[in-house]
Write a structure and sequence with these properties.
Order of helices and strands: HEEHEHEH
Helix content: 40-55%
Strand content: 15-25%
Oligomer: single chain
Length: 86
C-alpha cells in the first residue's frame, strides 16, 4: 500500500503529525514520521547516550511510546517492566 500511495502519504504525515508504519511481508520494517517527531526522537537518543556514558543511569524507564522506540538500541523499560525487576 505504501508504495502505491507514497506521494500522498508524504504530504499527509507532516499535517497530521502522525506516523505511517511500513511493512514488508506483514512485518513492520520502518515508519514514516513527521520531522518534528524525528527531531524529538534524535534528541532523546543523544541525551540518553550522554546519560548512559556518564554512568548516571542503567536504563530509561518511560511510558512514552516515542522513547520506547529506542529500546532496540538502548535499555529502555516500561514502568511495569521496571517494577517487575524490583
Amino acid at each position: 500500500m505504501v508504495r502505491q500511495r507514497l506521494g500522498a502519504l508524504l504530504n499527509e504525515v507532516p499535517y497530521r503529525h502522525d506516523t505511517v508504519p511500513v511493512t514488508q511481508g506483514g512485518k513492520p520494517v520502518a515508519a514514516l514520521v513527521d520531522v518534528g517527531l524525528f527531531a524529538k526522537i534524535r534528541l532523546m537518543e543523544v541525551e540518553f547516550d550522554r546519560t548512559l556514558l556518564a554512568g548516571e543511569a542503567d536504563c530509561l524507564v518511560t511510558g512514552d511510546h516515542d522513547s520506547l522506540a529506542l529500546a532496540d538500541r538502548h535499555p529502555v523499560l516500561t514502568p511495569a517492566d521496571f517494577a517487575s525487576r524490583l
